[in-house]
């Protein structure tokens, strides 16, 4: 592996000996404003020299001989610009594009997006940002370098089951939309990127809003929201072949094709991907496949897009982590599962129809119809299971009554999610923008279990369900937004949303208890704010937002019979300063997130040992975040961000059970805590990156990330925590043209270059036996030094 890594680095260093000639570089912006246009296509007429502007709207055309050229800049929704020039030396050329009369594809997501006038804390990632970091790892790892983000991987290397936290909030509190359509699972409210492998290859841009953010569809954002826009039309036809190989036999193959704009109206795009990896953890293997198809019609006043995409995953289970004792013994790759088919299997298909219409220059509409079909199971081998736990009769063999058996079971989820989203936008003048929108979504999920083999069959029948229940959820919301600028430098906004959730679970759950859960919740979520422009380059903003959020499925199922968990409420204050100059960009914000009835783990367990969450009266997160980039010179740039926070529960009651010799609970010990830390909430998350571009088309970056210690529970006990860790990564990329291929990209990502031993996730549970309290800690170790090498060809 070391030889392969050395060879890869040697290949990437080839451009140092290349003979660079003249270059044309500059920025592309919207005419009449300072808004830069990332993703603009820049090409030289009658040549294969094509590039796109990066996240800062900057482009660079290199290796040009002296001569006369015609530069063409095109961006969907804007009029194409071309300029003829004579090149005798390196040239800086800034271009401006004016908005076209017809709609841009971006209108599909505008209603849920923040912009420079929004009093919201946000971060935009362009297609180029995503491409540079896309080596086949799950989407959370592509977002890892953004403020306040902490990621983890069950298998230790970013492929398979992964997790993300933003501002200490887990995935169930991060609202995710795909083209404005909710993606979070309706019941668990989590996001499972393993179900959509290599989805990043079909993403055009992502906006991360931290805090409550703007009104969006789906569950409330209690930590952040991810607004994702999929592939938009390319002006030119293309074909791509992207390949990655790396440590742990990780392999990614992606084929992409696109027609470009046909008759300036039609476009078709497609992608087919597979990802395989053995994982860092023993038997932590993943076998993932996906596809993405999109067709669009774009007229002068209409945009119609149909997306069909799907993913399938088979991952060997590594979600138990390893015990603290095993970790101390140095066996970081241990996996307690040994059954050969201890796997998780899931298939998910998405269908989206997106439509936008411009009634006039002031009035427009966009909406979407969607349907998602999901189906899958996880299979596991269980030893010594009692027949009664599965509703089965004991077995008598030779006069001996047998009460337990080894067995193999599958637990299934079969669900359907469908609905509609819409919004109308009225902009009578540059000083006023009014949006009215909403969504209506329905979910039906069947949960059931099967026994596919047993040492003693009892009275079970293959294919019968030993438990069976159905979850149904209707999610309706309507919102109105007004952005008003009474004077030139001031922008005010009000955003009012009403959301209604109707949820029921009926049937038998996996412990064979009867479920008859019904809950109907109505939420009013107001938001107000103001942005003041100090000048064309900088502004300050302030906002106050309210969000309400329903409990997740497990909160309902595990609640005491006849009781319902309370919904959660968040009051969010954001204050910030933004500045954008030619070489320097920065955002500084402070925030306060004040929770009422937040659901947290308390140490309580169900009768089968599953952890319970309960409402705590008052808790909060206070923090400051910095996000900055500085172009030192044409060769050097620095990117950095920092998130410092204080995360507390004012009054917390911890529960610990005492057991007798027969594992029966004989007592419950409660311990009160005041002003204790919220679990999994590091007080510091820091990131820094140094980028070096010795010649055009070639860049290397040294990335460093620090994550402060995190407690595994809410007791702030030093013996139950994830230690702080510091990780360095190295990334290199070289874009060039050869052999008639439009663009060849060589990429190298070396993760954890200092071979740090660290754990990014874990859990703990405790008990009392014979008067002595003890705890068991489990951890998820992450891989040491590992690499991914990519070769991407664009035709």
UniProtKB/TrEMBL annotation:
InterPro entries: Beta-barrel_TonB, Beta-barrel_TonB_sf, CarboxyPept-like_regulatory, Plug_dom, Plug_dom_sf, TonB-dep_rcpt-like
GO cellular component terms, semicolon-separated: cell outer membrane
Compartments in which it is found: Cell outer membrane
Keyword hit for Zinc: no
Ranges for domain TonB-dependent receptor-like beta-barrel: 306-753
Topology in the lipid bilayer: Multi-pass membrane protein
Signal peptide: 1-20
TonB-dependent receptor plug domain mapped to chain residues: 117-224
UniProt keyword Nucleotide-binding, yes or no: no
Primary location group: membrane
TM annotation in the entry: none
Pfam assignment, any one: TonB_dep_Rec_b-barrel
Keyword list, A-Z: Cell outer membrane, Ion transport, Iron, Iron transport, Membrane, Receptor, Signal, TonB box, Transmembrane, Transmembrane beta strand, Transport
GO MF annotation: an example: siderophore uptake transmembrane transporter activity
Family: Belongs to the TonB-dependent receptor family.
Official protein name in the record: Iron complex outermembrane receptor protein
